[in-house]
Amino acid sequence: MSRYDVVVVGAGPGGSLAAKTASELGLKTVLFERGKKPGDKSSSGCGLAPRIFRDFDFVREMDIPGLKIKYQSLHMLDENLEERFMMRWSPSDLGEYAEAREYFQVDVYRRDFDRFLANLASEAGAELRTGTLVEDVLKDSEGRVRGVVTDQGEKVEGEVTIAADGAVSLISYKAGLRDKWKPDEITLIVDCDFQASKKRIDEIIGPEEYCNHVYVSPLFPAPYVAMMPEGFHVGYGQWIGRFASGYGERPYEYLRRVISSKPLKRFIDRLDAKPREFHAHLLPWMPRLPAHTYGGGIMLVGDAAGFACPLEAEGIHYAMVSGKIAAEVAAETISSGDTSADGLKLYEERWKKSVIGEEFSAAKEWAELWAGIFFDPKQWSIITPLANNIMFWASWSNPHIKNLQRQISKYKENAPFLLEFVKSYLYPLLRKSNFPLFRSLLKLGWMWLRTKKRKGIELIPEG
Ligand SMILES: Cc1cc2nc3c(=O)[nH]c(=O)nc-3n(C[C@H](O)[C@H](O)[C@H](O)COP(=O)(O)OP(=O)(O)OC[C@H]3O[C@@H](n4cnc5c(N)ncnc54)[C@H](O)[C@@H]3O)c2cc1C
What are the residue boundaries of the structural domains of the chain, listed by start? Predict the structure, then answer.
């Protein structure tokens, strides 16, 4: 039987970071991956958040194709799938560091990114064993995990096992740490990978104008278009528990409807794009803090733990952060001789103090906002006309003051909806963010009083 300090299952971003860190800390580490190569089994593309480049400086050195996404847009379609309102925005000056002010994400293919990270783990000294499915865990008489069993029946002992085996995470079940995900904790994402030539994308969109898109309509829940180095992805997801209740019960049918809607069809035609591959993947999207992330001899990282962000299920950064923390805790507990559940509780304490704990402090509020607004098509039959009216005062259809009156009465008509939005979604988030609401309101009132004292504006300055 082979023996290691650390056995890592899954060479996704979480597993490779765990294996890389453990090896750098001097631990004998093995990294198992069921795919022939890392990335083979993952959703084909992803966006890397700017903080990945800030927090993991070795990612700056990666030499793989990627698109810097400098714009995001939201398209509101009506029930005929015509675009009625569109917003496009760029990174804000509020970004705390250079990358956050420059781009939203870098879109890459997982086959490239996962291989890049797994290679770093190998270079650090981890033994990478691909094409190997881990089927079970080894347990001692007290139920503590002592290693894993592969599909070839090989028993591999490890002082600590790190389960980084993604959303399904067979290892969490086998270790007795998790039963099935609850229906409001897991989403199914269907996605179509389109191929288009980079030359054509650059001619039509322009290399400085890469933009990802979200489409909302009364007919389907918030699909996205993510630009990729060889084309783009069109995808759409929903919580499993809601598929059966009228929010998208036939995922591929919805995806087909999205792809054949006029704005999407135009986009596909302009880029002369061809569908290359369909995917369906599970993705945890938790409205609450993940509860069981460690046990005797084992820690769960990334999707296996449920760490994707509760607003939009961005999961790569949290997988990498949790993988690194788990490896550091493995090193400390192996050195202190306590890798029992009591010892590994340190892992939970650490991730709760990290950006992961901070993100999940408003998990319920963020998930409810997404479920109640973006993933609820019926809301868009109200929101889209309201948004479309925003500039009505400027219309040349009537004297502008009359337009403004009509606009205000429309908003008054929808006051119950707007108040409900503030009460159910906005206020809970403001309260959670410790926003110094009342101080800010007082300040705004004071500024308003001061501007009232100002003299009228001169249309034609004297002299
Ligand atoms: C369609 C889609 C789009 C997404 N887009 C983004 C995005 O743009 N940005 C972002 O940050 N996040 C995105 N996410 C979320 C992100 O992909 C995950 O949060 C992230 O990949 C989690 O990393 P991980 O290492 O925990 O797990 P994974 O990336 O799922 O890696 C798990 C690895 O374990 C292997 N494995 C599984 N079981 C076994 C086993 N028994 N034995 C051996 N190997 C095993 C798998 O083959 C896989 O390589 C997206 C998810 C989906 C589904």
Answer: 2-62+108-179+288-361, 389-453
